[in-house]
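User: Here's a structure from my thesis project, written as structure tokens. My advisor, Dr. K., wants to see whether a designed sequence matches the one we expressed. Can you design one independently, without my sequence as a hint?
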């Protein structure tokens, strides 16, 4: 058992001593030698254009996904409602005549 652990440690030491290049980072381009040199201003302008195009695409997709509902705004319906309100008369039971306290007590005791 101890021999196996010692063998594993020796193999790990040998592997670490080998000269192997580190793995390249994925965020960096692999070979930028053939690519044209772009100034930072051009790079920012290109990024703005890409962001604007993406925003326009999202706006179009949102417009298609949720079309506005057709609302019937015919004037005849609103005038019908107004006429019905006028036909109902005054609200709240106030008919213009105030009851005396005796009449109010008599109605309350009924």
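Assistant: Designed independently from the structure alone:
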């Amino acid at each position: 058992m101890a021999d196996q652990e010692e063998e594993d440690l020796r193999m790990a030491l040998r592997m670490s001593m080998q000269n192997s290049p580190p793995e390249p980072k994925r965020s960096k381009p692999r070979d930028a030698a053939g690519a044209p040199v772009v100034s930072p201003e051009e790079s920012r302008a290109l990024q703005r254009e890409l962001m604007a195009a993406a925003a326009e695409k999202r706006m179009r997709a949102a417009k298609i996904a949720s079309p506005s509902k057709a609302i019937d705004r015919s004037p005849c319906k609103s005038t019908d409602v107004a006429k019905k309100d006028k036909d109902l008369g005054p609200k709240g039971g106030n008919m213009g005549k105030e009851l005396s306290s005796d009449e109010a007590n008599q109605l309350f005791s009924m």
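When you compare it with your expressed construct, this may help: Residues 38-64 form one domain.
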